[in-house]
Amino acid sequence: MSNIIRIKIDLNKIDQSKCFRAQSGAVYLDAALIETAPTNHGDWRDKQTHMIVQDIPQAERLAGKKGAIVGNGEALEARSETQHYTPPAYVEPNQADPPSNQGSANPAMDDQDIPF
Fold first, then answer.
1. 74 pLDDT more than 70
2. 31-35 and 27-28: which strand pairing?
3. Half-sphere exposure for 101 (CA within 13 Å, toward CB)
């Protein structure tokens, strides 16, 4: 089963002091994707299945501080194994069945060899 979660992040809510730069020069943000309880607001919020929380240092977590919610996510409909394309099973031709004598729509082609 494949699951895709589409996310949206409000860049204005990110605490830039918690971002870090790698040796390569890339700037990273640590965040957590947390599944949320279903809602019945009757609007766009009902589709939101996850929230994105900016990660904070362990010392701050232990002190009871929580990271800022910087976005949300929507789990797209997952495909079950039965929804994936399954080619039809190969059926061995029955040797007792006589070949069809219907011929082609173009009788001139019946006597020509097909090169493949």
1. yes
2. unpaired
3. 2
